[in-house]
Amino acid sequence: MTSSFSSSGPYIILSRASFIIQTIKKHKANVILLFVAGSYLISISDDNVLMAWNLTEEGEFTKQGELQIPETFKPTCIIHPVTYLNKVLVGSADGRLMLFNLRSEKLVYEFKSWGAKITCLCQSPAVDIIAIGLQDGRIIVHNIKQDITLISFVQTEGTVTCLSFRTDQNPILASGTANGQIVLWDLKNKKLINVMRLAHASSVSSLSFLFNEPVLLSAGSDNSVKMWIFEAEADQGRLLRSREGHIATPTKVQWFGPGAILTAGGDRTLRAHKLHLDGSSREFSQGHVISSANKKGIFANVLKKAPIVDFAANMMKGKEWDNVITCHEGDIHAYTWSSIRRCIGAHSFSSSKLPKTAIKAVAISICGNFAIIGSASGWIDKYNLQSGLLRGSCSGKGHNGQITSLVCDGGNKMIISSSLDGSIQFYDLHTMDLLHVLQLNDPISKMIINHDNSLIAVVTDDLVVRIYDIETKNLVRHFSGHTNQITDLTFNED
Q: What is d(CA 325, CA 347) in angstroms, rounded to the nearest whole number?
């Protein structure tokens, strides 16, 4: 089974299939570099201590060597040159390279400085030849046996973040940039081939050509891994498949059926995730956004809808019509989505009260027929999800402040709303008549419901969580003691 290694402070962690197998602490300072070479693991810590470990089949670490790197040499990357037995090559922040023998624990050779921080190293298909990426954008193809530079390129896009050689008889070198581009270099003719400008939305962190195949794997700090295929005579890779997550922090997570969740993030996306089958995880489509962005030469996120403020979903009628609804920052509309097609739906809803204000909260009735929207003006509307028609609005004046949360009870009888005016209002789902009002002393920032026992939990600006029974409208209990903003809460299943 494949093992993976990670570091946390001075600890080195061995994991297999998402399970931590072993944790060791031999370094006295934080581990900053890890490198695997066959059955060996090389680690370097902040205090310039390099350790070599042998990993047995039973998952045990056996220390093979330790050496002290000179204090003036600050390691930034590491590689094991092919055929160089027991040796590693380490790059530094001042542009120097050092070749160490792990068995003798000695410095073998020091290369001259290239005058800029070494950001990455890559072994070529040829023995003794490595590529060196520098912070100033230079790429050096160097013979380390003879200490001779063979080829030099300048990447005008800036810092070289990663490198990879193609190994299928095509002399091509790929380099990554800090702004998400992949640059392709012709080693035979010593020239630039092409720049894949929209490869990633942010820095390219890793590149790797598959052995003897015209396929390139790339990973970026935009939380994505992509596979590119280079077809005959093509000077640019075509996206074959990708696996992506949220680029920005997720803002809301909700269970959606067995082993599945829906998530919204600050990256303007709505995603469905399968916890036990990650290959089925997908982003909800927002139409022809990607093709339009490619034509304009911009990232697709620029054309997507604003970040999602709130969303609600119900599986009940998912096969018949749209069953997800979202509201977005500063948007006066709420939008429907289909969890079956995983794309934006047919309808958009706005407040029936003029002037129209941004939608701040949404909910879907238990029966799956109605979408409830609440606006910044405190108004609540009910729409039919199948037809998209308005089917009622809250009676009276509504709330005197922005709606912060909307929920529907498990009996499909009531709509419950909370607001910055400090009130909780109960409406009849079918007639939209006001049934009851609970007035609190502080603005309400969030409210959730437990359908199993008819309880709602309310968060107020005094940092207290209060639990109410929606049948009796009585306070059941309260929890105080928080000293900072409460961002989320949930009920457990029992």
A: 9
Tokens of 373: 């929207």
144-168 pLDDT, tens digit per residue, is: 999 999 999 999 989 999 999 999 8
Q: Determine if residue 318 is left, alpha or beta; phi over 0 gives left, psi from -120 to 50 gives alpha, anything else beta.
A: alpha
Residue with tokens 């009130």: 423
Task: Output the six-digit token pair for 336.
Answer: 């429907």
For 107-131, the pLDDT digits (tens) are 999 999 999 999 999 999 999 999 9
β-sheet bridge partners, residue 125: none
Helix (H), strand (E) at residue 180: none
Q: Which residues pair with 363 in a beta bridge?
A: 372
Q: Which amino acid, residue 335?
A: Y
pLDDT at 226: 94
Please enumerate, as own/partner, the contacts of 13-21 that have beta carbons within 8 Å and a separation of 24 or more.
Answer: 14/55, 14/59, 14/61, 16/59, 21/59
In sequence order, the 6+-apart residues with CB closer than 8 A to the CB of 182 are 174, 175, 176, 195, 196, 199, 200, 204, 207, 216, 218, 228, 237
Secondary structure class of 289 (helix, strand, coil): helix
Going by pLDDT thresholds of 50, 70 and 90, the confidence category of residue 494 is low
Strand intervals (E) in 180-319:
182-186, 191-196, 204-209, 215-220, 224-229, 238-244, 250-255, 260-265, 270-274, 282-283, 308-313
- CA dist., res. 162 & res. 175, Å (int): 6
DSSP, residue by residue, 36-63: EETTEEEEEETTSEEEEEEE-TTS-EEE
The secondary structure of residue 312, as a DSSP letter, is E
What secondary structure letter does DSSP report for 443? -
Beta carbons within 10 angstroms of residue 317's beta carbon: 15
d(Cα 454, Cα 416) in Å, to the nearest integer? Answer: 12
Preceding omega of 258 cis (within 30 degrees of 0): no
What is the distance between the alpha carbons of residues 439 and 425, in angstroms, rounded to a whole number? 9
Q: Which segments of 255-345 does DSSP mark as H helices, in order?
A: 289-296
Instruction: Give the whole-angstrom CA distance, residue 242 versus residue 279.
Output: 10
Contacts of 485 (CB under 8 A, 6+ apart): 445, 463
Residues 331-371: tens digit of each pLDDT: 999 999 999 999 999 999 999 999 999 999 999 999 999 99
Q: How far is 371 from 354, CA to CA, in rounded Å?
A: 20
∠84-85-88 over CA atoms, to 5°? 65
pLDDT of residue 445: 94
